[in-house]
């Protein structure tokens, strides 16, 4: 029986609260099987007084969206002096903002679909019809539209005709005032988990994602049976190696720590293109990280227990 006491933070007041609670529950069970004492807490007004009184050895953030991924909760744990598993608060912001992440990963030498970022008031000031025409002219069709921040594909959609762009913009702007418009790349969609160890970051087997609808949206992600997953992904050795290289490269370029999941797509020419990265990957029954861990012949609780020890050693 371990004498470690770990706090798992799950829930939060975001659109992804339910997913976070499911992730927290699964992680808690996995860690308890490792013999750790685990307490589940929400990120609310009771958290700081609890941390001051309980003084846990470490915390794990299983919050998705908003404060769990943008560095806010990480910063609070730093203020409280609680070691935590995951990326530092300042670096979380680099990956949370999708255009920033794409820029930094592209500068590191990796491919990513061409894109433009537009604020809601730009359409008002410049005229929506003319701007949409320029978007289609510059980037072509189809396009992927999504909020520049956020997760679980909330507010994201694919448009194949110019007539569909206004509706997709409305959907994206419902989750924020800035939208990322990027070229939609047809290909094999994959997710690659990266785990830090004593010898540096390593990539676990990639997960291939095949949604029934053709688009990996919120419903496809969290409704059992709507998406088929292949782990390891059905890639040739060269593409599989490139996917691992991209994920590790993104992990390093963005200053990520302990664990991350990179979403990418392998296009018709075999080029692996970066889409986005997640510093607090889902751990539900339909999440890709646990699939990668299992395909690697490892145990979820064992992986996270080792990362907890790393976090405690860092102080």
Highlighted features:
6-stranded antiparallel β-sheet, Dna Ligase, domain 1, D-amino Acid Aminotransferase, Chain A, domain 1, 315 residues, single chain, alpha+beta, Rossmann fold, manganese, 3 domains, 4-stranded parallel β-sheet
Protein architecture, described:
Cell wall formation. InterPro entries: ATP-grasp (IPR011761), ATP_grasp_subdomain_1 (IPR013815), D-Ala_lig_Van_CS (IPR000291), D_ala_D_ala (IPR005905), Dala_Dala_lig_C (IPR011095), PreATP-grasp_dom_sf (IPR016185). The chain has 315 residues and is α+β, with helices and mostly antiparallel strands. The protein has three domains: 5-86, Rossmann fold (3-Layer(aba) Sandwich), CATH 3.40.50.20; 93-112 and 185-297, D-amino Acid Aminotransferase, Chain A, domain 1; 115-183, 2-Layer Sandwich (Dna Ligase, domain 1), CATH 3.30.1490.20. It contains twelve helices and 14 strands. The strands form three sheets. Strands 9, 10, 11, 12, 13 and 14 form a six-stranded antiparallel beta sheet that branches. Strand 9 and strand 10 form a beta hairpin. Helix 1 packs across helix 12 (300-314) and helix 6 crosses helix 7. The longest helix has 17 residues, at 17-33. It is globular and about 60 Å long. It starts with a strand and ends with a helix.
């Amino acid at each position: 029986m371990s004498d470690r006491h770990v706090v798992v933070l799950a829930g939060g007041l975001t659109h992804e609260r339910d997913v976070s609670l499911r992730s927290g529950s699964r992680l808690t069970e996995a860690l308890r099987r490792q013999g750790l004492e685990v307490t589940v807490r929400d990120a609310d007004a009771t958290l700081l007084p609890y941390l001051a009184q309980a003084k846990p050895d470490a915390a794990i953030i299983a919050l998705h969206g908003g404060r769990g991924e943008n560095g806010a909760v990480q910063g609070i744990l730093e203020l409280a002096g609680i070691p935590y598993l995951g990326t530092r608060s300042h670096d979380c912001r680099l990956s949370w903002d999708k255009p920033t992440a794409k820029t930094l990963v592209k500068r590191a030498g990796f491919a990513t679909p061409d894109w433009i970022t537009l604020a809601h008031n730009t359409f008002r000031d410049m005229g929506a019809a003319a701007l949409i025409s320029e978007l289609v002219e510059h980037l072509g069709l189809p396009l992927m539209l999504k909020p520049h921040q956020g997760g679980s594909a909330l507010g994201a959609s694919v448009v194949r005709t110019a007539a569909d762009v206004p509706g997709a913009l409305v959907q994206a702007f419902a989750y924020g005032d800035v939208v990322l418009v990027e070229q939609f790349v047809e290909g094999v969609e994959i997710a690659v988990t990266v785990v830090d160890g004593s010898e540096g970051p390593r990539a676990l087997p990639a997960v291939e994602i095949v949604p029934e609808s053709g688009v990996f949206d919120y419903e496809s992600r969290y409704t059992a049976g709507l998406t088929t997953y292949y782990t390891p992904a059905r890639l040739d050795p060269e593409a599989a190696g490139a996917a691992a290289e991209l994920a590790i490269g993104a992990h390093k370029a963005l200053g990520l720590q302990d664990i991350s999941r990179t979403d990418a797509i392998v296009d018709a020419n075999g080029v692996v293109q970066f889409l986005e990265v997640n510093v607090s990957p889902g751990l539900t029954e339909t999440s890709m990280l646990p699939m990668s861990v299992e395909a690697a012949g490892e145990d979820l609780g064992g992986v996270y227990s080792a990362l907890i020890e790393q976090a405690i050693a860092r102080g």
